[in-house]
Design goal:
Blueprint (H helix, E strand, L loop, with lengths): L1 H17 L10 E5 L14 H10 L4 E3 L5 E3 L2 E6 L5 E6 L12 H14 L17 H5 L9 E5 L2 E5 L7 H4 L10 H6 L18 E5 L6 E6 L13 E6 L3 H9 L5 E4 L2 H7 L8 E14 L14 H9 L3 H9 L4 E2 L33 H15 L4 E8 L4 H14 L3 E8 L1 H9 L5 E6 L7 H4 L16 H11 L7 H17 L3 E13 L3 E2 L2 E2 L6 E2 L4 E2 L3
Parallel strand pairs: 1-10, 14-15, 14-16
Antiparallel strand pairs: 2-3, 4-5, 5-7, 6-7, 8-9, 9-10, 11-17, 12-16, 12-17, 13-17, 18-21, 19-20
Helix pairs in contact: 9-11, 15-16
């Protein structure tokens, strides 16, 4: 009986520690994810949660430091040809977690596969972003072996471009350009790559120890084969998916998580709590929230949103200041441009691209009288007195904003009804990429530090969310800035990008809402978390967790 009692007591003690109620667990990093990971396959991932976990485990050619500067990763150095169209990367001695060397062929295989997959991020290889030679043709079905990448030897990776790309090195830190071990990829069952620790291979700081698609909990451990393993202080850490700010705050209070994001009423609650206020941190991001209008004339509401005046009416009926102050409540800032605030500085002046928030005040702003004038024009042009439109959004914390938009639009625009359609994240992505929506509450984070990471979204061949809008003048300006006449003319390119944004906003292809900030609660014993506004939002390579 004594032995049985001791066994029970030990089991209870272990369970208590595992649940986070014991100080023994305080020195472990336990991080909140705001949504489920969609995919750990670099050719399928489209969401920030997936990007972050992939970047925990895989290094590309380059990486970003804490200040957003490009520094070496797998590429120890690189050379650029005089015409700026050929990059030669020299790889360091690095290994995959299974002991295989990381070679140039791993990059060739991954880039060719990505071009062949042609998913939402395939466009980054093409002429609107990286300008890799023959990428546009490969994305349309040409032989991936014609892509402008080669491996003259295991330590040399060569990329040929159609035109010079000034920000090309920074692109190399993004997951589209990460390597994949071809031998390992071919060894797992078809379609299973990245679905478990056994089917995913790391060359980065951490590797998976527990993961399955849709899992609410993900465990990572330090990768001892990592080329920079001496830098990594964490033995590992865990993610927990928490979609509610209420639940995030509760998890932080009971120490089951020590890094969480909160919003809404929880922010005020924490600010008023002397025990928690010092753990609060506002982190700016490069994420832009906006309303996407589906202009397809064949959609299930008669194509009403193909009318620019209806779109302008809705945009001007939204009170963005009220949204961020009363519904988002996490430090986010109302935005009236197609790019976020504090993003993409001019190389000479340092002025951010969207600094002037009043530049398009005549078409983007909160003005009920003007909104109703636009609506009257739309009713006349469409010969309709009422409009019933669906607003789709991911049910991962956007409900309050969606409800507010519905309330504002219906109050300020007589005859316009908004029906809300909250959906799980995977279903949301499926709907917006398959043309199954009228209006979408959307967001985009920059993949690289240049205005084009936003402006290319709305070209005729843009990616992910298709507004079914096409404007030859807009497409030409974007082409001029990539492979055309402004490719090497910095000031001309800057002016042309501003002209493209003007078209976008005057035609109300989107209605910008706000630049996202995160209100973070982080335990005082956690240090060295890097928060970045471009690409991956959080990096844990220099993170430490001490005893409390």
């Amino acid at each position: 009986m004594k032995k049985l009692l001791m066994a029970i007591l030990c089991a209870v003690a272990m369970l208590t520690a595992a649940c986070g109620d014991d100080s023994a667990a305080d020195d472990k990093l336990k991080v909140m994810l705001g949504s489920n990971v969609v995919s750990l396959d670099t050719s399928q991932a489209t969401d920030l949660a997936s990007f972050e976990v992939i970047a925990d485990c895989i290094d590309g050619l380059m990486q970003l430091d804490a200040n957003g500067n490009v520094i070496p990763a797998i590429a120890e150095s690189f050379d650029v040809s005089e015409d700026g169209k050929t990059y030669t990367f020299h790889l360091r001695d690095a290994k995959w977690a299974n002991g295989d060397p990381v070679t140039a062929d791993d990059f060739v295989f991954a880039w060719r596969r990505h071009g062949q997959q042609s998913n939402e991020y395939g466009y980054m290889l093409g002429s609107t972003v990286a300008c890799v030679k023959n990428a546009d043709a490969v994305l349309k079905g040409a032989d991936p072996k014609t892509l402008g990448v080669s491996a003259p030897d295991p330590k040399t990776f060569v990329v040929e471009l159609e035109a010079p790309v000034s920000f090309f090195p920074s692109l190399m830190s993004f997951i589209t350009f990460y390597p994949i071990n071809e031998k390992f990829y071919n060894s797992v069952a078809a379609g299973s790559y990245g679905t478990s620790p056994e089917t995913f291979l790391s060359n980065g700081a951490f590797k998976l120890s527990s993961y399955m698609p849709g899992a609410a909990n993900i465990q990572l451990v330090k990768n001892d084969q990592y080329w920079d393993a001496a830098r990594i202080k964490l033995d590992g850490f865990s993610y927990q998916v928490v979609s509610s700010s209420d639940n995030a705050l509760t998890a932080f209070k009971n120490k089951s998580l020590n890094l969480v994001n909160i919003s809404g009423n929880q922010v005020k609650s924490v600010k008023d709590d002397a025990n928690l206020a010092n753990d609060l941190k506002v982190v700016p991001t490069g994420m832009l929230y906006y309303v996407s209008f589906n202009q397809d004339p064949k959609n299930h509401h008669g194509g009403a949103l193909a009318n620019a005046n209806l779109r302008l009416a809705i945009s001007n009926a939204i009170d963005r200041e009220s949204l961020v102050d009363n519904f988002v409540m996490d430090g986010s800032r109302a935005t009236y441009r197609a790019l976020p605030l504090n993003f993409a500085p001019h190389v000479d002046s340092g002025e951010y691209f969207a600094d002037d928030q009043k530049l398009y005040a005549d078409v983007v702003g909160f003005d009920v009288d003007r909104a109703r004038q636009f609506l009257d024009k739309a009713k006349s042009e469409l010969n309709r007195d009422s409009f019933e439109l669906n607003l789709i959004y991911s049910n991962d914390g956007s409900s309050a904003v969606a409800q507010a938009i519905k309330s504002q639009v219906e109050e300020n625009l007589p005859g316009v009804e908004i029906k809300l359609q909250p959906t799980p994240k995977a279903e949301y992505f499926s709907n917006i990429t398959s043309n199954n929506y009228d209006i979408a509450l959307a967001n985009w984070s920059p993949d690289y530090n240049d205005p084009m990471t936003f402006l290319t979204l709305w070209t005729t061949d843009g990616c992910e969310i298709s507004e079914h809008w096409s404007e030859p003048a807009y497409d030409q300006l974007i082409a001029d800035c990539t492979t055309g006449r402004y490719a090497t003319d910095y000031d001309g390119r800057w002016t042309a990008m501003a002209s493209a944004e003007k078209i976008l906003l005057e035609q109300a292809v989107i209605a910008p809402l706000y630049t996202k900030c995160y209100t973070v609660l982080m335990s005082p014993n956690v240090e060295g978390v890097e928060f970045q506004s471009v690409g991956v939002e959080r990096v844990f390579k220099d993170t430490t967790v001490g005893k409390q």
